[in-house]
Write a structure and sequence with these properties.
EC number: 3.5.2.6
Structural class: alpha+beta
Number of strands: 12
Helix content: 25-40%
Largest sheet: 8 strands, mixed
Order of helices and strands: EEHEEEHEEHHHHHEHHHEEEEH
Family: Belongs to the class-A beta-lactamase family.
Catalytic activity: a beta-lactam + H2O = a substituted beta-amino acid
CATH topology: Beta-lactamase
Protein name: beta-lactamase
CATH architecture: 3-Layer(aba) Sandwich
CATH superfamily: DD-peptidase/beta-lactamase superfamily
Number of helices: 11
Number of domains: 1
GO molecular function: beta-lactamase activity
Length: about 325
């Protein structure tokens, strides 16, 4: 989560969503989710979604503007987790490694490590990055694995829409008017919190320092990552799932007592706002992979309204899918 208010953003009217069913659909479960899907398509500003029931949508899929590259915020942090665990698997790192937490990496929106300094195990940083979206933990992990190495990994995956900064501090510095590539440090971050900028503010929806991705790419990524494609050891996949299952956004949209893995993202910067939630839930052994994103312009009082609409629609969709896949298990 990145909480700063600001201006600038793009707004595109919503259009009708598109749903596709596989061949022989009459033999497949029927999901009564047209109405909540339409609600997602009609969210303010620009929205996008993709839902796949069964691996690669073999049972059902629904998509709306799913190829659109949109601002997704901290949803990109899943790639930093995956790369670190790959390094652990290959003997380059350990989750017990002590990594520094200090003003050299301290960033905004760090609910766990904001006022702490010293060293802490990488495992605690990974968990704080996913569970609480702590940006100081994120920058410690990203510094450890190297942003260029993560970018090369994403390119090898073929996920062309994914973009992320070299650190969250570089992102905040750029959005607050600093030249591209200039990290204004912890002192600069505190200045931002006091509404002191370094130049003309920029939109998070830009082509240089940003966090972007498409629903298509996130759904493909979670399908492949959670199947174990990017790990050699089942133990590493188990650890990846354990940490991804700690994301706080899961309980807001996934039916109770359902296994799920996710990492959401958001931003409030001047008048630009974004919400994104990609991930996967498992119902009776069937994967249900999803990504919903919305970007819109509006004052702070629009955030709880839009967030409530998105959460309500996603909850309806995922509950209906779960009830259809496992009759009697969900009410």
């Amino acid at each position: 989560m990145m909480d700063r208010r600001g201006v600038l953003g793009l707004s595109v009217p919503a259009a009708l969503g598109v749903m596709t069913l596989p061949a022989a659909a009459e033999r497949r479960p029927r999901f009564n989710i047209d109405e909540p899907l339409q609600k997602l398509a009609e969210l303010p500003g620009t929205s996008s979604y993709k839902f796949e029931v069964g691996t690669n949508g073999t049972i059902f899929n629904a998509a709306y503007r799913s190829d659109a590259q949109m601002f997704v915020g901290s949803a990109v942090k899943t790639f930093f987790l995956l790369k670190f665990l790959q390094d652990v698997e290959r003997g380059k790192k350990s989750e017990s490694d002590l990594l520094p937490v200090n003003n050299k990496i301290r960033s905004l929106s760090s609910p766990v490590f904001l006022n702490l300094r010293g060293e802490t195990p990488a495992r605690s940083l990974l968990e704080a990055m996913i569970t609480h979206s702590d940006n100081t933990a994120t920058d410690a992990i990203l510094k450890s694995v190297g942003p260029q190495r993560v970018r090369r990994l994403v390119r090898r995956m073929g996920l062309k829409s994914i973009r992320f900064p070299g650190s969250t501090r570089l992102l905040f510095s750029y959005l607050a008017g600093a030249p591209y590539g200039v990290d204004k440090g912890w002192r600069g971050m505190k200045a931002i919190m006091q509404d002191k900028l370094f130049g003309f503010p920029r939109s998070p929806d830009n082509g240089r320092e940003t966090m972007k991705g498409s629903a298509d790419d996130f759904v493909e990524y979670y399908t492949r990552a959670l199947s174990g494609e990017f790990f050699k050891s089942p133990a590493t996949l188990t650890e990846f799932k354990r940490i991804q299952a700690m994301a706080s956004a899961i309980v807001r949209v996934v039916p109770a007592d359902t296994v799920a893995y996710a990492k959401g993202g958001s931003i409030e910067w001047l008048d630009f706002n974004a919400l994104c939630l990609p991930g996967q839930m498992i119902v009776s052994g069937t994967p249900v992979t999803f990504c919903v994103t919305v970007n819109w312009d509006g004052p702070p009082d629009t955030i709880p309204v839009v967030s409530g609409q998105l959460v309500e629609a996603m909850s309806e969709i995922l509950l209906e899918i779960a009830k259809t896949l496992a009759p009697g298990q969900y009410s």
